What we know:
Number of strands: 4
Shape: elongated
Number of helices: 16
Radius of gyration: 23 Å
Strand content: under 5%
Amino acid sequence: MRFDPAAATARYIDGLGPDALAKAADYTRGGEWLLLWGVVVAAIVTFLFVRLRILDRLAVRLERRGWALRTFLLCAAFMLLSALLTLPWDIYTGWWREAAYGRTSQPFGDWLGQSAISLLIGALFGGLFFLGIYALIRRAGKRWWLWSGGLAAVAISLVLLASPIVVEPLFNDYKPVPEGPVRDALIVQADKAGIAHDRIFLYDGSRQSNNFTANVSGLGHSARIAISDVAMKGASLEEVKAVTGHEIGHYVLGHIWRMVIVFTVLAILLFFLADRLFPRLAHMFGSPAEIGDPRGFPVMMFLVSLFSLVALPVQNYLVRTGESEADAYSLKTANLPDALASALVKTAEYRNPRPYALEEFVFYSHPSVERRVRVAMDWKAAHPAGAPVPAQ
């Protein structure tokens, strides 16, 4: 009997069962609505900060400080105070809802503690970054937004370089994959791709999430492939090899560098629009501050939130392209289409595998699971057992 990729794909997806499919769709679409409501929350926060003149009052207290320190403190203070203001919303979206859908088993106290660490890091680095932005507005004149791209590129590169070394160990424990058949198989894959054996890690991702996942992070010598213990425990050896092949694809194909370029371009566009739209938005919220005045930072951050939502389809399209390329790399190198398909189906628990086309285009950072499984099944049909695989 001839192999039918469409029928095989349907079997994989339908194998989840109607209840699981309905739950995944509900969870996914609820998350999409949260993105939209997040902008509304950002607008409310901006309105309250402006109308209560919170940063204006703080600026008066800091008026004897130097410009740089005052600007940094105003930006960092907004990030910290706005996080306190939105804490109920963050608890609902980041912990309660995840626990209700079975996506996390993390105790609330641990979630709160890790959120506090993340907030402090974000306030420190965010304050420094926007100090640089305000310095550019003061020094670079009307083309400051163009120079912001260089600052964004440096900032993104530094964060990616330092994150695996300094930041990620604050939240998870990263260790070499234990000795055994899994490590032996991964070493073979790493050797074929020219990746050092000490660049593949196992981490306790189950601390935060029950999601079946792996990732690539870092730049240069700090770059690494990290596999969650959820994926390691819940997968067969072939599934681990297929998933690792996908992550190696990201590593080898330089997708992190591509994203540095993409986010740099998006930063330039963001600050160009900020330069044009800030006066109108500031007037709308009732702020007298000009764009170079850090007292108007709440308006600037609302612009960031709004732009992030508007730019989401572009960003997601580029990320989906990389995910498809990584899937193709796994199929060509590991040649385990069924293992890749079965591993992908496990991610359908938290990502509706059958979205509408427009929904996928706007909101999905990965191709739909059904689409990815179909690609794997098409590969299987074109490369039956024993058929040669195209050289890399």
